[in-house]
Amino acid sequence: MSNPAINSDTSAYKLTKKDLDKLFVRSTWSLQLCWNYEAMQGLGYCWAMIPTLKKVYKDSPEDLHKAVNLHMTFFNTEPRMSAVIFGANAALEEEHGMSNPDAIIGLKTGLMGPFAGIGDTIFHTIFRAVFWAMAAQMAMAGNYWMMFLTVIASFGRLWVRWWLVHAGYREGKRVAMNLAASMKTFTEGAGILGLTVVGALIASIVNVRTAIEFYIGTDYAGNVVNQSLQDLLNNIVPAIVPLSVVLVCYWLLGKKWMTPARLMLILVVAGIVGHNIGIFA
Amino acid sequence: MELGFIALILLSLYPGLAWLDAASFEFTLNAPLLAGAFAGLLTGNLTLGVMVGGTLQLMALGLITYGGTSVPDFITGAIIGTVFAAQAYASAAGSMSMEAALGVGLAISIPVGMVLIQLDIARRAFNTIWFRMGVRFAEEGRYNRLTPMLYAGAASTFLSRVIPCFLVLAFGEPLVNLVLENMPYWLMNGINTAGGMLPAMGMAILMRYLPLRKHFYFLIIGFTIFAFRAVPYNVIAIALIGFCLAGIYIMVKKDMAGSLASNNGGQSNDDVEVEIDE
Predict the structure, then answer these.
(1) Neighbours of A280 (CB within 10 A)
(2) Which of the ends of chain B has fewer CB neighbours closer than 10 A, N or C?
(3) Each residue of A125-157: b (16+ CB within 10 Å) or e?
């Protein structure tokens, strides 16, 4: 095993905070830019790592060549959580170099999966349930400035990504593994927040009322008296119609053959037909 | 109402920039609300843009490219829908209500967003070329050549949004007018009703990704508190909240009993592990 001067403590090979900031900017920018069906985020990953690799393998063109080609392969994970992988990868590369490429491959593939689920929940599902929904609801109610709520919140998300690169680097591979475990609790808490907000949103932004009326008799003048089903429902549980529609959608989405595109079509048809036969107002 | 040349260019560039932003720093330019408002501002009908974009945003809450799937392009949809709805509203000169204009906007936005899925699939397939070339450069040791490959990928993303948006905005008006003039009232009103229902899909997709089965109590609490804001609270509301509080109390108590047992090293260890795995 030829091991070049990578482990010597010369600061020329040590990654600084500035290097990591650069890694953060590059990886955030590039990861998804050339997404393709063959390697998915592979090219973006490799491009983001190049300055890091050039510094770490300053004295060894062979190792640099090996490393670049190692990263020019399939990679796909949740883009925001990729920050931890970049950080940990940089640490690993700095410490062991190309003496142990299997460790680097193991780290990347090992963290791709678990982080994807966590990142999707926190940075996508919760982010949209809270900020996207709030912005849309308040802007449509007339508070136009609230449409920028998502932009403001996005800076918070970006800061987390920056922090994750540094955290991933600081503790190397070990913390990346620990982080995946300890974030489970956090994800569950975030899920509870999300569900509470979604419950309120169902009652406010899903806007559908029933137009069904019951004939209950005639008054003394002979006029027909009808009872509106919606009025009746309002006295029991208002917004029960929106809730039912959401639950039907939820149930349909659990079917194997159901896609969001199909569900959208079903809802449009249901709205048009339902309106014209007098079920929905 | 004619769309000015500069407005046409700005509106065409927006989806391209928004998709690059969505793929990188995520300042949420890809929020349909912002896209619709931008189009509304440039066509002089901000209110309409907010309504069209806001409705699409609520539909799109759960839509994301999980593992590389393509989703409807409601950014371009919001822009095109808002522009044509604003033009129809302006040329109707008061004989069209804002609700009807919203219906027009949605009737255009939704199909546009769906059709553009195909282009997203195309550019993802096309980008394979740049990756292949990149692999060759990496093998030859010409690492600086990876940069143009990356930007070629960015360009195909950018152009796949900008070109269709430009073409539809520049040349689509006669076609859209033809459709709108012949669209019957029953269809317009029906689409409006559907527009109110569509956010249900966004909610349902979100619920699929949230721990609904375990924590549905919280959903009911949020729903009940908000659903009754317009009418007087009744006993049913209080009963619903009471039911949820009871459920949460029992759940927490069970969890605590479980962790106590595991601390004592009791024989119920197996049960505890099952619960944690959930």
Answers:
(1) 23
(2) C
(3) bbbbbbbbbbbbbbbbeeebebbbbbbebbeeb
| pLDDT score of B270 | 40
Closest CA to A25 of A64, A52, A54: A52
Say if residues A187 and A254 touch (Cβ distance below 8 Å). no
Give per-residue pLDDT as tens, A134-143.
999 999 999 9
Contact at CB, B210 and A121, closer than 8 angstroms: yes
On whether the CB atoms of residues B8 and B170 are closer than 8 A, the answer is: yes
Task: For residue A112, give the chain B residue with the closest CA.
Answer: B67
DSSP-based three-state secondary structure for B116: coil
Amino acid B215 reads H
Query: Tokens at residue A233, please?
Result: 């429902």
Task: Provide the terminal-to-terminal Cα distance of chain A, rounded to the nearest Å.
Answer: 76
Q: Tell me which residue has tokens 């500035």.
A: A18
- Distance to chain A for B10, nearest Cα, Å: 19
ipTM score:
0.78
Give the closest residue to B202 by CA, choosing from A79, A149, A198, A269: A198
Cβ burial of B167 (10 Å; 0-12, 13-18, 19+) is exposed
B28 and A150 within 8 Å at the Cβ level: the answer is yes
d(CA B192, CA B198): 10
Q: Which ranges of chain B does DSSP label H, i.e. alpha helix?
A: 5-23, 32-42, 46-59, 74-92, 98-115, 117-140, 146-171, 173-181, 185-197, 199-209, 212-227, 235-263, 269-277
CA distance B151 to A104: 26
Return left, alpha or beta for A85; rule: phi > 0 is left, psi -120 to 50 is alpha, else beta: alpha
Give the C-alpha separation, A244 to A266, whole Å: 15
Name the pTM for this structure. Answer: 0.80
Is A238 in contact with B134 (Cβ distance < 8 A)?
no
Question: Three-state SS for B88?
Answer: helix
How close, in Å, is residue B39 to chain A by CA atoms?
A: 14
Per-residue pLDDT of A220-258, as tens digits, reads: 887 888 888 888 888 888 899 999 999 999 999 999 888
More confident residue, B271 or A119: A119
Tell me the per-residue pLDDT of A186-232, one tens digit each, with 9 for 90 and over: 778 888 888 898 898 898 888 888 999 888 888 888 788 888 888 88
> What value does the mean pLDDT of chain B take?
86
